[in-house]
Amino acid sequence: MFGEGLIKGLGVTLKHFIGTYLDDIRWLGRGRYYNEAALERRQSPQARGVFTVQYPEEKLPVPEEFRYIPFLVYEVNEDGSHQDRCTSCGICAKVCPPQCIWIVRSNDPETGRPIPEPTDFFIDTDICMNCGLCAEYCPFDAIKMDHNYELASYDRFEHHIFDKERLSKPVSYYAQIRPENYRREEKARAEKEAAKAARRKG
Amino acid sequence: MTEESKTRVDDPIKARFADEITLDEREAYEGYIVPAEKLLGFAQVLRDELGYDYLSSVTGVDYLPDEKMEVVYHAYRTAGGPAAVFKVQLPRDHSDVPSLVSIYPGADFQEREAWDLLGIHFSGHPDLRRILLWEGFAGHPLRKDWEEPYFEEERKPFGNRWPEGQVYRIEDKMAFGKNVKYPDEFTPEGWVPEGEQALYASLEQGGRIRAGNGNGNGSGEDVGEEIVVNLGPQHPSTHGVFRMVVTLDGETITSLKPVMGYLHRNHEKIGERNTFLMNMPFTDRLDYICSMSNNFGYALAVEKLMGIAPPERAEYIRVIMAELTRIVNHLWAIGFLLNDLGAFFTPALYVINERELILDVFEAVSGSRMMCNYFRFGGLARDLSDDALEKIKEIVIDRLPGKIDELDVYLTGNEIVRTRGEGVGVLTAEQAIAYSAAGPVLRASGVPYDVRKSDPYSIYDRFDFDIAVRPNGDVYDRYLVRMDEIRQSLRILQQAVRDIPGGEIQTGKPQYQVRVPAGEAYGRVENPKGELGFYVISDGKPNPWRYHVRAPSFINLTGMEQMCIGQKIADVVAILGSIDIVLGETDR
User: Fold this and answer.
1) Which residues contact A149 (CB under 8 A, 6 or more apart)?
2) Which of B19, B318, B367, B475 is the most buried (most CB within 10 A)?
3) How far apart are CA B238 and CA B316, in angstroms?
């Protein structure tokens, strides 16, 4: 019969329509929106009804591996001073596909030998393609990908080249956004140190 | 070693042509070198006697140090099996080669591309105009001695980034008005776009196809008054910036020419400036719906050159990601085909719901929903976590099969979809092969050709699945093939998540500067949109000498005019939607 397919199809639409309200009823009292448990369910394979996220009031939780614009990791010494992990070896600048990383390395005026910490470090965020290769190939875990994606600004000429000050963030921040990675790297580092110490003793 | 002793008895091509062709004896190169004057005869025999009926890829290469241009052809049998690779070598300053359009019509756009980007002239081509660039463009940019208006260095990494990083904004160096070069004696203000005239003149060939006579004078006889209509470049049905120029007799299409290149960025030139690894994230941006399987194709090509293979677990993860990508793409294609048919966004949003769940997996695994950059040479960027694997199982075992059945009930029997789709935009099996159509477009025309089965790569030979194929070659069958393929992908996925072993995900140590031995390699995968090929030449340096993409969205458009002639203008939108193009890949 002509029209049968249409009616069956409309049945699917009706099912979706009703499904939306069923989910509203399920979350009655607790709130289907602005509620973390509800958001998590709404974004899972068990989700029924409407998937919509009410951005910016609600934000999707980003997974640990999420990557957006690199940042530089520094250690905080006991006296409160900062120690860059970066040794300005330049691997990130060499591996960067759009070539958006500029590093200034300087020499010690007395000895003439290179100072490990970079004098300056720039990333042109207009060009950065968020591929994450710099973080992946950094041998010192000094450059990592950030989670903060709300970077809109009013003046691209002024604000879109990030300098070292803007890029630097403490290790504690890194440990907070990427706990798994941090644990794994710290473990590897501790093992390496232990092996080195054992070799020195032996 | 003499020529004769190298010829194997089981090499029917060499046996058939004996002294007319020579083997390509360069280290790590394959195929035959055919003299330009014998090319047409060779191709004719190759197609008609030896069964290589499908010309997959035409690539130009500039060998600047040898003062040579080379055109590389990859032909396949639709019955399956490896490629017949043949090459024509030409002097660099005067490169002229006979066009293969009369034998393989699918060479049309690819030869135009080689003319546009490399300046190789194809004599006998019916419509040799620029295709990706505009007529006022200076030079042929893929020639090795061509430099862009703001030229920094021949190869990355650029020297001024480290250790004395002189930071500047690229935009200051490429100020508006200075970022373009014109040919000598060219003034943009006084320019008469002769390219447009050539374009409109080329439309007259449409009458020739319709009359079915190959040597007509081009003026469609018995046609009343024809009008020219431009669809696009800005048009909601074109899925991007894409233009179709059609001539109409009443409402009926009499000829059609796709005009593209509005999103052109010379991906291949960028690729030749890049190091091998740097190209990986750039491949994401070709067909940006399917970044995982773009990665796959490029990784295969470079791994072939390097002579390495990924470990077992990485192979499984690759297949899982590629098949999830196929589902994503087909859901998207079906949703937007329905949009084009007038079902404004309800079906599209239903399928996007499911797509989002898969993108969540991509994000958890690779760090990005669409620009995944997940594959590495000899492995993957990182392992697949148990959580992510559990989520994939939930999606492909518990959720998606039911959702696809629901979509089937929703759309397949719908009378509007059937009326708009059945018998519209027909491409017969012979035409589909001739026009080098690939992927769902080819299989909907009744050709059971799928690279995963016909020339298996990775570990696809271990899975139990069928090639989705439909006989009619119309818009409706292209929709059905995509539905079938989603089901087949689910079958593969269910086997893969069951069998995935533990272990390493990377062969050797991850390296940022891979050593790629000199040679050539063609890696191809069955991308959701069709056969995606990467032709890579290494000269042993850190950057590829040549990096060519055989883009299915681009080549599938070759048969577009054939599909549209005789149809109503409203059907053009449906036909384009059923081909399923992505402009990031078409224009490169």
Assistant:
1) A62, A68
2) B475
3) 36
**pLDDT digit string, tens, across residues B341-390:** 888 888 999 999 899 999 999 999 999 999 999 999 989 999 999 999 99
- Partnered with residue B243 across adjacent β-strands are B259
CA atoms of A79 and A77, how far apart (whole Å): 5
User: Could you tell me which chain A residue has the CA closest to the CA of B158?
Assistant: A99
**Hey, are the CB atoms on A12 and B367 less than 8 Å from each other?**
no
Task: Kindly give, in sequence order, each residue whose CB lies less than 8 Å from that of residue B262, ignoring residues fewer than 6 positions away.
Answer: B233, B240, B241, B242, B243, B583, B587
β-bridge pairing B121-123 and B96-98: parallel
- Tokens linked to A101: 């990383």
Could you please report the per-residue DSSP string of A48-100? Answer: -S-----TTTS-PPPPTT--EEEEEEEEEPTTS-EEES-----HHHHH-TT--
How far does A177 lie from chain B, in Å, by closest CA?
A: 13
Spacing of C-alpha B121 from chain mean position: 22
Nearest residue of A to residue B418 by CA position?
A5
Task: Quote the pTM value.
Answer: 0.89
Q: Is the ipTM of this complex over 0.95?
A: no
pLDDT in tens, B382-398: 999 999 999 999 999 99
Q: Is A63 on the interface with B (CB under 8 A)?
A: yes
Contacts of residue B105, Cβ cutoff 8 Å, sequence gap at least 6: B434, B435, B436, B558
